[in-house]
Write a structure and sequence with these properties.
Structural class: alpha/beta
Distance between the termini: 31 Å
Order of helices and strands: EHEHEHEEHEEEEE
Strand order of the largest sheet: 3-2-1-9-10
Family: Belongs to the metallophosphoesterase superfamily. YfcE family.
Radius of gyration: 14 Å
EC number: 3.1.4.-
Domain Calcineurin-like phosphoesterase: 1-152
Helix content: 10-25%
Strand content: 25-35%
Number of helices: 4
CATH superfamily: Metallo-dependent phosphatases
Organism: Amycolatopsis acididurans
Shape: globular
Cofactor: a divalent metal cation
Length: 166
């Protein structure tokens, strides 16, 4: 199963649209995961229409319309992989320990908020992933997103993709 993992799209404030490369990845994926800060409900509508399956949560910049349609935290079984999605996990210091305690029945936790890519594993095996942002690099060298595969209940082939500057 192919996954596209994105967060912090901030449309249309940080960009007018998702980059075409991200749309191609969304259409090729079996599952699109969005970890919040959509900002505009139009992107949710378009991803729902174009993705085979979508799991998303709202972020701190998402208003009432998005909050009415999305949960704060999402949990899903993805071919035997226990996936959770949340927008914010707090400061980087202590993140693994804090998240392992908060998500004891999760194999992979996807989060956003910082716009900083993150890939670590907590003691006990919880994998934490932040795809960065495909539209707002902030202090990062480039905008980013993640792809991954799920095989036999395990996450494999995690890849961070950098996007060319526009």
């Amino acid at each position: 199963m192919r996954l596209l993992i994105i967060a912090d799209t901030h449309l249309p404030k940080r960009a007018r649209a998702l980059p075409e490369e991200v749309w191609r990845a969304a259409e090729a994926a079996d599952l699109v995961v969005h970890a919040g800060d959509w900002v505009n409900v139009a992107l949710l509508d378009e991803l729902e229409a174009r993705a085979r399956r979508l799991i998303g949560v709202y972020g701190n910049n998402d208003g009432p319309e998005l909050r009415a349609r999305l949960p704060e935290v999402a949990h899903a079984d993805v071919d035997g992989l226990r996936l959770s999605v949340v927008h914010e996990t707090g400061p980087a210091k202590g993140r693994e320990k804090r998240c392992a305690a908060a998500f004891p029945d999760t194999d992979v936790l996807v989060f956003g908020h910082s716009h900083i890519p993150w890939d670590s594993t907590a003691e006990g095996g919880l994998r934490l992933l932040n795809p960065g942002s495909p539209t707002d690099r902030r202090r990062q060298p480039e905008c980013t997103y993640l792809t991954a595969d799920v095989e036999g209940g395990a996450l494999t082939g995690v890849r961070l993709h950098g996007l060319p500057r526009r």
